[in-house]
Amino acid sequence: MWQFKMFFLLLILSAGFAPAVFAQDKNAEDDDEIVRVETQLVDVPVEITDKSGKPILNLKQSNFVVYEDGKRQELADFAATSAPFEVALLLDTSGSARSELPLITRAAEHFINSLRPGDRVSIISFRSDREGGRAVAASEVLTDLTDDRLKLKNVLKTVSVSNGTPYYDGLLQVVERVFSQEPDEKFRGRRALVALTDGVDSTSAAGFEEARERFTQAGIVSYFIQVDTREFFEENLLGDCQSAMRFSAAQIRRYYRTFYPKSKIEKISSFCALGDFERLDISKNLYELADKEMNLLAKTSGGKVFPVADFSEARTAFARVAQEIGTKYSLGYYPSNEKRDGSYRTIKVELKGVPTGVTIRAREGYTAPKS
């Protein structure tokens, strides 16, 4: 009888203990799930070249070391140069580009054909709409990401011109429309902007800082084919204000806000009230601002700016961009600093087991999410 009582007592105790163990295991699983959901995988695109500038293509995950704010991180993801890319192709078809539209679309088609099988492309361009009886410029996503080359070729035939440059709005559409969804595993850390533009915005509702912050968070590699349109613009900027090429009101406001934020001088809002000296000064500063912004976005993302004198050189520049995209490595890590404080974190990539004299170009940092 006492054996039966002991067995019954053990059965009761084990029954009481099992739910506790199960609850603990479940809580542990929940905790693990919370960590997985809330910890952001940081993607780091990397370009490696030898001392002669030739890409190094045979590296492995073990060759790379990544630091965040000086602390070594454990790599959780690695993609070699052969992995496919997703590309947002932004074509600036405003201003001096109007007479060069066939040249632009042919260069863009050549670029798309230069990409590898499996690479996917989305095309963004500008157009003119009618609003309140006047023409306004707008950015437009002409096609979502696709690897259908024939479809992309046909979409390029629909690219039109605009009477303004909503460049910053176009950048935002890259983040909000083209890359709005999390990438498939094979494209993780392998997303790029390729923009053919002079970078001088004239009509956007958005600003550069907003676009830059979104790009920094998304980890999009930024390449710019920077067309020099300044001489053309300034040749048509002076003289009679009715026939001259004008600044938009947004450009004039940006000029004063950026370069004379605390000045007490009278801020002119009408283009026709500007003298030739003011027009040239605004032009000079806006082009320098565009140059600074493009180089900042490219450098911090691990991309590059390719300056060209005119649209006839765009095809060669596009070929260089296609080569760059085809030689990118991608690294990924879960940061050891799990704070969701919105702080900016610096990234540094080092190599081991490679010859001396190599050059590393990589994403330089990101903004941590906020709670």
From TrEMBL:
Pfam families: VWA_2. Residues 86-227 form the VWFA domain. Keywords: Signal. Residues 1-23 form the signal peptide. InterPro entries: VWF_A, VWFA-rel_acidobac-type, vWFA_dom_sf. NCBIfam families: acidobact_VWFA. This is VWFA domain-containing protein. The lineage of its organism: Bacteria, Pseudomonadati, Acidobacteriota, Blastocatellia, Blastocatellales.
